[in-house]
Specification:
Belongs to the pyridoxamine 5'-phosphate oxidase family. With 212 residues, this protein is an alpha+beta fold. The chain has one domain: Pnp Oxidase, Chain A, CATH 2.30.110. The protein is 26% helix and 34% strand.
C-alpha cells in the first residue's frame, strides 16, 4: 500500500471572518467566483455535481456552471444521461466548487428543476458548432464498444447538418438548481479553517460558523 500521510501543506492565504459575510450568500459566491476568474484559475466555473440513484448510491461528476442569479444555478446536459435519470427520481443535488489555488471551496445543496425548451435553445444556439454536433453524436452514459463508434457518430452528424443551423436535440436541455444551503470554506493555518453555513429559513438565511 502506498503511504500518502506526509503529503500536506499549510493554508496561509488568509481567513474568512463573520464581519466579512453579506446577508445573502449569493453575494459572497459572486465575489469569490469573480476572484477565481481574475486569478486565472483553470476552469473556475467547473463544479462537482452530486446525485443519488434509486438505491441511495451517490455519484459525482464535473459539469460547468453556465449561469447563476437569485433564481438558481444553471447547467446543461443530455436528458438521458445518468445524472438526469437520478434527478428524475430525486431532484436533491449537491454542487461543490473546488478552488484549490485560492484555498477555498463552496458547497451548495438544492433542488434541480428542468429548464424550459426556450432557455435550452437559447444556450444551445450560442455553443460552438462542434459542441452542438457533439451533443447530437453522444448518447450520454450509454455503453460504447470503442471510441471509433463515437467518432463515427460525430462524422455522421457533421454530414447530416453540413448546411444551415443545427437544431436543438429533443434529448438535450438544462437544469436550474434552487439552493437550500451554501457552505463557504476558507483554508487556515494549523488546520484552523473557516467554515460558514448559510441555510434557508423562509425568505431569510441563517448563518452559522462550523468547526473545521
Amino acid at each position: 500500500m502506498r503511504d500518502l500521510t506526509d503529503i500536506r501543506r499549510e493554508y496561509l492565504q488568509g481567513g474568512l471572518r463573520s464581519s466579512e459575510l453579506p446577508q445573502q450568500p449569493l453575494a459572497l459566491f459572486e465575489r469569490w467566483m469573480d476572484q477565481a476568474y481574475k486569478a486565472e484559475l483553470m476552469d473556475p466555473t467547473s463544479m462537482v455535481l452530486a446525485t443519488v440513484d434509486q438505491n441511495g448510491q451517490p455519484f459525482q461528476r464535473i459539469v460547468l456552471l453556465k449561469q447563476f442569479d437569485e433564481d438558481g444555478f444553471v447547467f446543461y446536459t443530455n436528458l438521458g444521461s445518468r445524472k438526469s435519470q437520478h434527478i428524475a427520481e430525486n431532484n436533491q443535488v449537491g454542487m461543490l466548487f473546488p478552488w484549490h489555488d485560492l484555498e477555498r471551496q463552496v458547497h451548495i445543496t438544492g433542488r434541480a428543476e428542468r429548464l424550459s425548451n426556450m432557455e435550452a435553445l437559447k444556450y444551445f444556439a450560442s455553443r460552438p458548432r462542434d459542441s452542438q454536433l457533439g451533443a447530437w453524436a453522444s448518447n450520454q452514459s450509454s455503453k460504447l464498444s470503442a471510441r471509433s463508434v463515437l467518432e463515427g457518430s460525430f462524422m455522421k452528424m457533421k454530414d447530416k447538418f453540413a448546411k444551415g443551423e443545427i437544431p436543438l436535440p429533443d434529448f438535450w436541455g438544462g437544469y436550474r438548481v434552487k439552493p437550500d444551503s451554501f457552505e463557504f470554506w476558507q483554508g487556515g493555518a494549523k488546520r484552523l479553517h473557516d467554515r460558514f453555513l448559510y441555510q434557508k429559513t423562509g425568505a431569510a438565511w441563517q448563518v452559522d460558523r462550523l468547526a473545521p
